[in-house]
Design a protein that fits this description.
With about 280 residues, this protein is of the alpha+beta class. The chain has helices at about 40-60, 70-80, 85-100, 115-120, 160-180, 200-215, 220-235, 240-245, 250-275, and strands at about 1-5, 10-20, 25-30, 130-135, 135-140, 145, 155-160. It has 4 domains: about 1-65; about 65-120; about 125-195, no CATH class; about 210-275, no CATH class. Strand 5 (about 135-140) and strand 6 form a beta hairpin.
């Protein structure tokens, strides 16, 4: 964009463009009275010139491929003039998520179902060491993030291959939810709307569904005992299990571990008794 000062003191701004009908280079200009704020004047002039060029292209019936970001801006501009403010704001939030996912510079005429599906499947997080780092805790009471409850609660938890597959499915589901409901979150397991999950609500949901499906009223904490038992049966040492669960000295973990290993020893004894040497 070029500009020059007129004898009247006003500033004339101009830009060259390619005429969509003749394919010849033409110039378009506008004149503004200086406000004393140069950067703002330049921005206003650029927006006005771009709007006039866009109008020329659209009236000619020849519309160049535009980016998703520009398409979004035009749509929201239209919505603000024709619908209620809250509707326009809701549409804007939905489109922000879509543009962020698909790419602001993506050309709108190149979009396809295959491209969108590819973007949904692509995980922006790279799993290098496949480890979950437990370093913080969230309090629903004071709505604040703080350090873990104890020093041993800060730990690294190895992710098994089957769990890594599950994690990718969860992240894809969250991306689909972001598009459908127009919110954005950086949490791995967010509540509806992208916020933190209320543990009491989750506990109630988990307990009621376990009773409905399994016929037993289990709690999420019971899964830690099940996990301890499964690791003990697999021959994982007690020290490793305690470190994985974030326990420095847990009587419950030891009790479950001893119960499982005692049962395994009894099974070994029974097998040995069936062995006939002579």
């Amino acid at each position: 964009m070029f500009k020059r000062k007129l004898p009247s003191g006003n500033i004339q701004y101009g830009e060259w463009y390619l005429d969509p009908l003749t394919d010849k280079r033409k110039r378009i200009t506008i004149t503004l009275t200086p406000s004393g704020r140069k950067k703002i004047d330049d921005t206003v002039a650029a927006d006005a010139i771009n709007a006039k060029i866009r109008e020329i292209y659209e009236s000619s019936g020849h519309v160049d491929a535009i980016t998703l970001k520009l398409l979004q801006d035009r749509y929201i501009e239209y919505q603000k003039k024709h619908v209620k403010p809250q509707t326009a704001e809701n549409d804007c939030r939905h489109l922000n998520v879509i543009v962020r996912l698909l790419g602001a510079d993506t050309l709108s005429d190149r979009l396809s179902a295959a491209y969108v599906s590819e973007k949904l499947d692509a995980d922006p997080v790279t799993y290098v060491d496949e480890v979950i780092h437990v370093t913080k805790t969230y309090s629903m009471v004071i709505r604040s993030i703080s350090t873990t409850k104890t020093a041993t609660s800060t730990r690294d938890v190895d992710v098994q291959p089957e769990l890594a597959v599950c994690i990718k499915r969860i992240r894809k589901f969250i991306r689909e939810e972001e598009i459908m409901y127009g919110y954005r979150t950086d949490l791995f397991l967010p509540a509806f709307g992208g916020g933190y999950i209320n543990y009491d609500v989750y506990n109630k949901y988990f307990r009621e569904n376990c009773e409905r499906i399994l016929g037993r009223r289990l709690t999420p904490h019971a899964l830690r005992h099940t996990h301890t038992a499964m690791l003990a049966e697999a021959g994982v040492p007690l020290e490793t299990i305690s470190r994985r669960l974030g326990h420095s000295d847990s009587k419950i973990t030891k009790s479950v571990y001893m119960h499982v290993t005692e049962g395994m020893r009894n099974q070994d004894r029974e097998r040995m008794e069936k062995v006939r040497i002579l």
